[in-house]
Amino acid sequence: MTTEISKNKKIAAWVIAGLLTALFLFSASGKFLHPEQLEGIHLGDWRVIIAIGEIVSALLFLYPRTNIYGTFLLTSYMGGAIIIHMTTAQSIVMPTAVLLLVWAVGYLRNPGICNCNCKKA
What is the pTM for the complete model shown? Predict the structure, then answer.
């Protein structure tokens, strides 16, 4: 079953996906350039692996043929970010908002992902 996406939804999905990819790439560069950020939460030894995972996930998310895999990987990544924020008594508003945007783009680009057999009223 293929579902055609309207032009406006495609444009919105591309714009949000581009902005999110830029955000994730900027975040990953911070992990390389400022290692002290992750030292405070005892993840300094893992910063390179975390940054590479973030870059790969963001690029998979941006590329149309692999965006569903990027969506799943970024969902996991942001889930981890929310847990870290909760355990270090930081606000979870920002990572939650980013996660919701990742889901929105995932749905806009792959409307069949939520393939429920609900009858629409």
Answer: 0.82
- Residue 43: strand, helix, or coil: coil
Tokens 């390389």 appear where? 32
CA atoms within 13 A on the CB side of 72: 5
- Contact between residue 60 and residue 66 where contact means Cβ atoms under 8 Å apart: yes
The residues, ordered by sequence, that sit 6+ positions from 70 with a Cβ below 8 Å of its Cβ are 57, 58, 59, 60, 61, 62, 63
Express each pLDDT in 57-68 by its tens digit: 999 999 989 999
Say how far apart CA 34 and CA 22 lie, in whole Å.
Answer: 18
Residue-range domain boundaries for the chain: 7-110
Cβ contact 82:96 at 8 Å? yes
- What are the structure tokens assigned to 22, written together? 């830029």
d(CA 99, CA 95): 6
